[in-house]
Amino acid sequence: MSVISMMVHPERNESLEVAAALADYLEKSGNKVRIDEVGASAVGRSELGCSTENFAADADLAVSIGGDGTMLRTFERVAQAGVPVLGVNVGHLGYLTEFEADEAQTAVDKALRGDLPVEERLMIQSRVQRFDGEIEGTWIGLNEAVVEKKSQGHTVRLEVTIDDSPFATYAGDGLIVSTPTGSTAYNLSARGSIVAPTHWSLQLTPVAPHMLFDRSLVLRPDTEIRISVVGEREANLSVDGRSVAALRDGDVMIATRSEVIARLVTSGSGGFQQVLKQKFGLKDR
Q1: Among residues 36, 58, 68, 251, which one is catalytic?
Q2: Is 24 annotated in the active site?
Q3: Options 2.60.200.30, 3.30.360.10, 2.40.50.320, 3.30.420.10; which CATH number does 123-259 get?
Q4: How far apart are CA 276 and CA 150, in angstroms?
Q5: DSSP for residue 201
Q6: What is the pLDDT of residues 47-67, one digit of tens each?
Q7: Which residues face 204 on adjacent strands?
Q8: How far apart (Å, rounded) are the C-alpha atoms in residues 140 and 278?
Q9: Distance in angstroms (rounded) separating the CA atoms of residues 155 and 173
Q10: pTM above 0.85?
């Protein structure tokens, strides 16, 4: 018997239908199924509801049914326990959800048998050092940590130090520190570098910079990036789209590679390149 934890997008009907059918199939096959509490209620299987604290416990596989946002919420719950995640896409074309709804049952069976490859993805860790030296956090993300302005219509000044060496002070809307997986998320919309998701590096990308230097930097995975707020205009720190801290003059966000590794179940068919081609309408010739 295997234990499967399922994360479901609660507001998409197709997601609920796929989850209900997959749960029935897995239970009939003798497996133990649990669903995040909100998703279980939406599916109509409240008895399978599982709290955030117990979602990863003893799980052999986590299945995310939704889009890339649902995948991020799934990794948030299971990455530290080393549970592999299989993504079923029922939203727009995504980079993380490699399997379609009609492939869900077959893909899960193969994953449980160990017949599908599992990629290891770098995750990012961020914490805040306040102006008085106090440390807050640690927050872990699969995509990125972002320091952005709080006030509309104004820029924020951010001083960057890389491995204890002062680099530059940026004026703009913010700075993104992304993983290779996150290079096709917010980083991409800010014209950052696209990096193969299994590569190990950190990317530093400015958001709407008001300065001549506007390039994205691809850095070693063991780099420490410190971003300090300079001046009276406040900033906000978000990790994978979750707002986690407000930053004021003298506060520092410290970003490094996390020791936690995300494990992603894939089809092994070069899905990343194929999604890029579809996203950008690229032709073979």
Answers
A1: 68
A2: no
A3: 2.60.200.30
A4: 32
A5: -
A6: 999 999 999 999 999 999 999
A7: 177, 217
A8: 30
A9: 5
A10: yes
